[in-house]
Design brief:
Immunoglobulin-like; 5-stranded mixed sheet; 181 residues; elongated; mainly beta; 2 helices
Length: 181
């Protein structure tokens, strides 16, 4: 009887040690792709068209010109989103910098035209727009865009797009217009 109990205890201990944590089991369903391709999950897809960097951004807000400067760098990502199954928002936009730190879309530029987080994506209708992030300058060499319907999605799709490294210096000023950048 003692050998059976010991064997059962060893099996149970090994099962406990090798079982992934609950957060991993119920975490996001990830899809990874590159900037030059359309990256699709089961519920939505994204194609990153351009990644632009600037020290200052400008746009028209309520008929007046708005201008925002930064002690870091503005990163403006022009992209196309498409829902595949149902009408949905894509509200969780995160840019992972070169160090691995995560940056959410800037609220300072939340009134800029054509912001994708303010749009609802419809199946069969590609939606174009921009994501606007503000990062320290040392974070912009190797970035990854992470998108999902909500922050910290559980059992929902999450798309990661590896952005092409770009060593060009940020522009002095970038205009965001209703039709893009």
């Amino acid at each position: 009887m003692i050998p059976v109990v010991l064997a059962a205890a060893i099996v149970l201990a090994s099962l406990q040690a090798t079982t992934p944590p609950y957060a991993t089991l119920t975490g996001p369903i990830g899809t990874v792709g590159r900037q030059s391709e359309t990256v699709s999950s089961n519920t939505f897809s994204v194609k990153v068209n351009r990644v632009l960097k600037a020290k200052n951004i400008g746009y028209e807000q309520f008929g007046r010109a708005a201008s925002l400067g930064s002690s870091g760098v503005w990163v403006v990502i022009s992209a196309e989103l498409q829902a595949l199954q149902k009408t949905m928002p894509v509200r969780a936009e995160t840019l992972v910098g070169a160090s691995g730190r995560m940056y959410r879309q800037s609220r300072r530029a939340g009134d800029a035209p054509n912001i994708l987080s303010a749009k609802i994506v419809q199946p069969g209708l590609p939606t174009n727009g921009v994501f606007v992030f503000e990062l320290p300058e040392d974070e912009i060499s190797n970035m990854k865009l992470v998108l999902s319907e909500q922050y910290d999605p559980q059992l929902k799709d999450e798309i990661s797009v590896l952005l092409q490294p770009d060593d060009t210096a940020p522009q002095a000023r970038l205009e965001i217009r209703k039709d893009g950048v």
